Hints:
Elements: H1 4-17, H2 22-39, H3 41-54, H4 59-81, H5 88-94, E1 95-98, H6 100-108, E2 113-117, H7 123-132, E3 137-141, H8 147-159, E4 162-166, H9 170-180, E5 184-188, E6 198-199, E7 208-209, H10 212-220, E8 224-231, E9 237-241, H11 253-274, H12 296-309
Amino acid sequence: MNNEWQYHVVKGISWLVCRLPYKLILLIGASLGPLYGIIAKKQKLRGIKNIKIGMNMNDEQAEALIEKLFKNLGRSVMEILYMPNLTKKFINEHIEMRGIEYLDNAIKEDKGVIVLTGHVGNWEWMGAALASYGYPSTTIVKKQPNAQFTRFMNEYREMVGLDVFASGGNEIVSAAKALKKKKLLGFLADQDGYIHGLPVPFLGQPSSAVVGPATFAKKFDSPVVPIFASRKPEGGHIVHILPPLHYKHSGDDDVDMYTLTEECVRVTEDFIREHPDEWIWFQHRWMTKMSEIVDYDKKLEIRERAHEKQ
């Protein structure tokens, strides 16, 4: 069945949202977000469970935190619909860039830059801000189950100046070419690494970590710059640019891959704990069982060697 009508419906809603004042859409989003929490009971319970472990909270604290998360998610959804209004003037007024010197220094290395980020804050507006400030940015995105939603999101990403590559296949080759051209290559690296990931604990639970950032850093010797967004209480966002990470060529590639991957996990984990009501706690981050990871015993040995060298 042709579901192209869904794309046009969302575009129509976006058109209406863009006619509203920014402060009003934030109020609407904060009101609508918790309604999703009522409907999505499984996600809410999963999120509470993960919050209790990751933040060492009791039931009451975890429930209060996830209510804040749903409010922020509602705000972010409204902001995504509002993206056609992201002019350079609007971005300058509502998005604050902190630590820009770290990114500028990484660019001066002249090897391209890998941007490490995650599903925290409004990462879509973060990408728009980087593009607005003149940083040639590309991003690797995961295809959504709904093709019309993927079409809508990629159209808006490209509208604000991002080059978009879907994960898998020839798109990865295109992303590598972009890095060779000294562009920023963004990774949403807080997802499950599946069976080919590395066993790196994350927020109190065993997990499989994605190896994309470390893989590209090894291949191109590019710095990895962690960049995350957080929400301002009064509206708008802060883009936090943190000191770069580097692939260390010690002669033991397995250990070096693990070391950088673990560093990426830790800096992501630290930022989430600083802004716990802005990360999607109910995503399937811990879906892969450790026994399912390919060459798990070998990777455990690599982890031990990496920790011995630290």
